[in-house]
Amino acid sequence: MLNIAVLVSGGGTNLQALIDAQNRGEIPNGHISLVIASKPDAYALKRAEKAGIPTAVLRRKQFSSQEAYDDALLQKLAENRTSLVILAGFLTIISNRVIHAYENQILNIHPSLIPSFCGEGYYGLRVHEEALRRGVKVTGATVHFVNEVCDGGPIILQKAVAVQSGDTPEVLQRRVMEQAEWKLLPKAAALFCAGRLVVKDGRVEIKEEAE
Ligand code: GRF
Predict the structure, then answer these.
(1) Is residue 100 annotated as part of the catalytic site, yes or no?
(2) What pTM, to 2 d.p., does this model score?
(3) Is 140 in the pocket of ligand 1 (CB under 6 A)?
(4) What is the assigned CATH class of domain 2-206?
């Protein structure tokens, strides 16, 4: 059983999807054993507490340097004996030091079909605003490994979602969550924990399920 740490900043609906999937037995080789929030009022913390998952709060601004923050984050992850880190709407930048300590062990969910509408500045509603501005007919979500390039790591899973006429950024965001994000993230976690994700030359190969 691999220990999973989920890092959150907001409402935590993706965390909830992970908890629900775990409760349904859909992540048989993994266990969410820690939730770390970047601020004390993140509603995601309430969801974790309700599910009986230990929590911690690490605010970047509490620390005098990036180094001190990284030390604290790495210590929390090590204490948890973390095998998989999941960024589920986590808004604090993860430094290269942390990325290298958990190379190909950090998953992120991004609410577009990468490489569209991604990279620096593309987070939250901004992503959907830009998709609507450009007039794409299909958008979606992507789960990828985290590397030094913002939203540039190896892609694990993607799912397309239709844009409909009259969509507002909020309506589109909700549809992308319901139809893509909440399904993809638990699925990627389960694949990782089953040892089925192989990264080669910057691309992810999904191994067949062992008999
Ligand atoms: C999601 O749209 C996710 O794709 C993005 O941040 C949002 C988090 O929402 N990275 P929630 O906190 O999981 O509800």
Answers:
(1) no
(2) 0.97
(3) no
(4) alpha beta
